[in-house]
Amino acid sequence: MKVSELLKIVDGIVPLKNAFEDDLVGITIGSEENEVDGIIVAHELDKQLLDYCLDLNINTVITYHPPSFNKVLGDDNNESFHPEPTTLEFIDNSMNIITLHTAQDVCEGGNGDTLAELFNLKNIKLFAMTNDIYGAGRIGDIESILVSKFNELVESKLNTKSIRTNEFFHKIKEVKRIAILPGSGTQFIDEIIEDVDIYVTGDISHRYLLKADDARVGLLQIGHISSEIPGMKRFVNKLNIALSKELEYIYREFYE
Question: What is the pTM of this model?
Answer without folding.
Answer: 0.94
